[in-house]
Amino acid sequence: MNKNVFTFIGCDCEYDDAKIVIFGAPFDSTTSFRPGTRFASSAIRSESFGIETFSPYQDKDLLDYKVFDSGDLELPFGSPEQALSDIESRTRQILDDGKIPFMIGGEHLVTLGEFRAVAQKYPDVHIIHFDAHCDLRDDYLGVKLSHACVLRRCHDIVGDGRINQFGIRSGDRDEFEFAKTHTYLHRFDLETLDEVVEKLKGKPVYFTLDLDVLDPSEFPGTGTPEAGGVSFRELHKAVMTLSKLNIVGLDMNELSPVYDPSGRSTALACKLLREILLAIL
Q1: Quick one: which of 252, 251, 239 has its CA closest to 280?
Q2: What is the pTM of this model?
Q3: Is residue 9 in some structural domain?
């Protein structure tokens, strides 16, 4: 796998040396409201040079660790299944080489492609999901492959009791009813995360972060903003607990840079990506 010419800041080691491999999944063909997430990964790379590699929160520096940025996949916009297949293939390659895949979306459906490969390698995997939305619809307008259905499709793979959802404050009635018996849904905030982390220690965990879990007053650059979200400080505190878990795959998705001309949403995503990388390294 060749090194990407244009990388996230501090993530330019050789592939063979890397513990974590970043790749972009610029896909937003099933977006239900406002498109634009296909531009997130390139924007994050570009804007990352506005931050430092050093984290004063963790007293750690990306330059002291090995992260490889393999660039963006070339995904077909008109075929969700082919896009998911391409993502799954890239993820499987990374896992087979003993590394942790970290995908930058893209809309939230891209999670399904990575998770298929992760679940195949780790059949007992659990999911921690941060989001404003349930994403548990069985279909959206008759389509089962939609970003509104992604956690439902993940549930199809792992079954009951393996999905913990946090920050959820939006969804239709059927989604919340489904969650009562099939997932562990923690409404509105991240306050019960520590309890879940204690239960999942030592088990393989997949982490999926939909950035619209943040309040739109702090993060307006997303296609489906939802009032009542968490703050950056709350989210940062929560992701620091990832260091206690056996993270085997993860993703960050749903930044739409075009809806925030100020650039603050992209800047927040860059800082958060740095902090997550350092937390799990």
Answers
A1: 239
A2: 0.97
A3: no
